[in-house]
Amino acid sequence: MFRFWVANLQPTRISYPRSCIVKAGGTGRATQMGKTGEETGADGSMVSIADYYAGKNVLITGATGFMGKVLVEKLLRSCPEVQTLYLLVRPKAGQSMHERVSDMMKCKLFDRVREDNPDFHQKIVPISSELTQPALAISPEDVERLTSCVNIIFHCAATIRFDEPLKHALQLNVMATQQLLNLAQQMHHLQAFIHISTAYANCNRRHIDEIIYPPPVEPKKLIDSLEWMEDSIVRDITPRLIGDRPNTYTYTKALAECVVQRESSKLSIGIIRPSIVGASWQEPFPGWIDNFNGPSGVFIAAGKGILRTMRANNDAVADLIPVDVVINLTLAAGWYTAVHRPKAALVYNCTTGGINPFHWGEIEHHVMSSFKRNPLEQAFRRPNANITSNYLMNQYWILVSHKFPALIYDLYLRLSGQKPQMMRIFNRLHKAIGLLEYFSSQDWEWNSENMNMLMSHLSPEDRKTSPLRPPAAHNPTPQQDLTPQTSSGTQPHSSTKPHPSDLQRHTTPLLNQ
Ligand SMILES: CCCCCCCCCCCCCCCCCCCC(=O)SCCNC(=O)CCNC(=O)[C@H](O)C(C)(C)COP(=O)(O)OP(=O)(O)OC[C@H]1O[C@@H](n2cnc3c(N)ncnc32)[C@H](O)[C@@H]1OP(=O)(O)O
Ligand SMILES: NC(=O)C1=CN([C@@H]2O[C@H](COP(=O)(O)OP(=O)(O)OC[C@H]3O[C@@H](n4cnc5c(N)ncnc54)[C@H](OP(=O)(O)O)[C@@H]3O)[C@@H](O)[C@H]2O)C=CC1
């Protein structure tokens, strides 16, 4: 299997002349490039994001995931004239691909879309695909169909587990991305390829620009080397390979960026780097989330009275960003990439810390007071969690507030003839928070010039309906046409960075309750 991938990392490229790709474009409303570079309609007015997506065929990977679902929902709701959404989905947990998609469309997230258009499901076409398989396991008929009509690709699928074995993380995050790029190059009408990366792909640096940094290793060389290795050997050498990155996730996401960038002479590419994606701010309704990733699991464990202590720096910036804001940026980047066809891939650091800093210490305060006002059902103990940056103090509280109560509770369970379980729960919790502490103990500085630039290109209507950042009393929306920073970092970029004190703070709705 690995051998196949290696062979396919250097694909036979079918390149279409750029003019062909662009002209062939969407079947939507007639558009032309305005003098300023904005896409304008036939009447000369600026074309909105919804106008751009009208009549377009969109391919989405990872649509069953947290961010993918929100992307599908927003596209259907805000771009009602979008032609078709092709979702690459695999069967899972005994459910067929069709059952999974049909279940997904029944979920509360889609209530508003359902209200607006009860037949919205007709726009969704699931395509069977297992991304870790050769050629993404897409049938030849489906390849034919996709290559003949897709206009925009959003690549959201990934393994986001921090403890993923390197080979699997490499297969999904890097090789599948390469396979998708190969497919993209065969598409006759493709206008934009949007890759979802993470703001932490380069977390081994303190200051992160909107450029692609040199990869920690040549991806193909790594794949070649791992091909013949036993899994146990790969496991042993993983810490050496990932070096100063904390896990295989950030390492493989960095490699994926590099693989994507290498195709930027043939495809129009945008790379979105969100920081820690949390519950929705506004859309389709406030507070939607469907997973325990990142801080969400920590919050729930604290709310249930299980987690009492965690290592985190009170003063470090907690770079949380609501999922709807990330998706607004993703759709706007798709539009911008297709319309402006930047020569090099544009990277968008999708972060909040530089403009609206919020700290882990403040989060602790809001989370705890929120759970005191709105207690969770069946809590283990009354919630009372504290964060500390002191290792010894944390170890002390782990012993006193986690392990000791767990021992007592398990003893009680044993004596009452039940299976002990609390120590097992704490062991898993300790493993999970051990993996998260790297991110809660330090902070990073992300440049977000391209996000500002993108905002400056949005029509006034789009700024209202698809805000790229939560509103702030004194939040100066850049009015001027800012120069994009290219992924190679070669072009100059504007220094119109808003001052943090100009901006109002926000928290996710969960914390605002
Ligand atoms: C003290 C109180 C206040 C706190 C303030 C301070 C908070 C500090 C928090 C710091 C967090 C910092 C996080 C930074 C992350 C930045 C990373 C960059 C962002 C990204 O690019 S991508 C997203 C990042 N990825 C992740 O977050 C994934 C991390 N998770 C993992 O790697 C694995 O899940 C983990 C942690 C290794 C655990 O694996 P495992 O034990 O195998 O468990 P599963 O995840 O498979 O879950 C099994 C099962 O349990 C359910 N579950 C999980 N957590 C909870 C919970 N808290 N309560 C209830 N149930 C839970 C889970 O849904 C699974 O259920 P299934 O039914 O699906 O089996
Ligand atoms: N959540 C976050 O905080 C952040 C996420 N990101 C990035 O955003 C993107 C989306 O993340 P998120 O939505 O949170 O992740 P999820 O884990 O919720 O979703 C992952 C998606 O990838 C799909 N997928 C995984 N493996 C395969 C496979 N072998 N074949 C086909 N599909 C597969 C999953 O499908 P299935 O349902 O079948 O498993 C699912 O749809 C990722 O690229 C991630 O790196 C970046 C920064 C922060």
UniProtKB/TrEMBL annotation:
<feature type="compositionally biased region" description="Polar residues">
    <location>
        <begin position="476"/>
        <end position="498"/>
    </location>
</feature>
<comment type="function">
    <text>Catalyzes the reduction of saturated and unsaturated C16 or C18 fatty acyl-CoA to fatty alcohols. It plays an essential role in the production of ether lipids/plasmalogens which synthesis requires fatty alcohols. In parallel, it is also required for wax monoesters production since fatty alcohols also constitute a substrate for their synthesis.</text>
</comment>
<feature type="domain" description="Thioester reductase (TE)">
    <location>
        <begin position="60"/>
        <end position="329"/>
    </location>
</feature>
<keyword id="KW-0576">Peroxisome</keyword>
<dbReference type="GO" id="GO:0102965">
    <property type="term" value="F:alcohol-forming long-chain fatty acyl-CoA reductase activity"/>
</dbReference>
<keyword id="KW-0521">NADP</keyword>
<keyword id="KW-0812">Transmembrane</keyword>
<comment type="similarity">
    <text>Belongs to the fatty acyl-CoA reductase family.</text>
</comment>
<keyword id="KW-0560">Oxidoreductase</keyword>
<dbReference type="GO" id="GO:0035336">
    <property type="term" value="P:long-chain fatty-acyl-CoA metabolic process"/>
</dbReference>
<keyword id="KW-1133">Transmembrane helix</keyword>
<feature type="region of interest" description="Disordered">
    <location>
        <begin position="459"/>
        <end position="513"/>
    </location>
</feature>
<feature type="domain" description="Fatty acyl-CoA reductase C-terminal">
    <location>
        <begin position="402"/>
        <end position="465"/>
    </location>
</feature>
<dbReference type="InterPro" id="IPR026055">
    <property type="entry name" value="FAR"/>
</dbReference>
<dbReference type="GO" id="GO:0008610">
    <property type="term" value="P:lipid biosynthetic process"/>
</dbReference>
<dbReference type="Pfam" id="PF03015">
    <property type="entry name" value="Sterile"/>
</dbReference>
<dbReference type="InterPro" id="IPR013120">
    <property type="entry name" value="FAR_NAD-bd"/>
</dbReference>
<keyword id="KW-0443">Lipid metabolism</keyword>
<comment type="function">
    <text>Catalyzes the reduction of fatty acyl-CoA to fatty alcohols.</text>
</comment>
<dbReference type="GO" id="GO:0080019">
    <property type="term" value="F:alcohol-forming very long-chain fatty acyl-CoA reductase activity"/>
</dbReference>
<keyword id="KW-0472">Membrane</keyword>
<protein>
    <recommendedName>
        <fullName>Fatty acyl-CoA reductase</fullName>
        <ecNumber>1.2.1.84</ecNumber>
    </recommendedName>
</protein>
<dbReference type="InterPro" id="IPR033640">
    <property type="entry name" value="FAR_C"/>
</dbReference>
<dbReference type="InterPro" id="IPR036291">
    <property type="entry name" value="NAD(P)-bd_dom_sf"/>
</dbReference>
<dbReference type="Pfam" id="PF07993">
    <property type="entry name" value="NAD_binding_4"/>
</dbReference>
<dbReference type="GO" id="GO:0005778">
    <property type="term" value="C:peroxisomal membrane"/>
</dbReference>
<keyword id="KW-0444">Lipid biosynthesis</keyword>
